Amino acid sequence: MVLTHQEEALVDAVRRLPPPAAGELTALAERLAVLGETSAIDWSEAWSEEDLREYSAASALRVADEPGDKAA
After folding, report:
1. Which of 2, 23, 39, 44 is 20 to 30 Å from the Cα of 50, by its Cα?
2. How far apart are CA 12 and CA 21, in angstroms?
3. What does the alpha-carbon distance between residue 43 and residue 40 come to, in Å, rounded to a whole number?
């Protein structure tokens, strides 16, 4: 099987995880694959471009307000 660049990057990232974490991630992917076969996505709840802009702006403000390491 030939993997895309993104798939190769994902496989590499999973290989770098500790074995228990890699096992959990693999189990999650398997469960999602099964759900994908039997579930339809209801896109009526999808975010509009305006929703995404508002969320991004609010997130940026929250990050800017958080105390932490800031370059002086």
Report:
1. 39
2. 14
3. 9
Say how far residue 12 (Cα) sits from the centre of its chain.
16
Residue 5, pLDDT above cutoff 50: yes
Q: Alpha-carbon dihedral of residues 15, 17, 19, 21, nearest 10 degrees?
A: -130
Q: Is 71 helix (H, G, I), strand (E, B) or coil?
A: coil
Average pLDDT (25-39) is 88
pLDDT at 3 over 70: yes
Amino acid identity at 12 = D
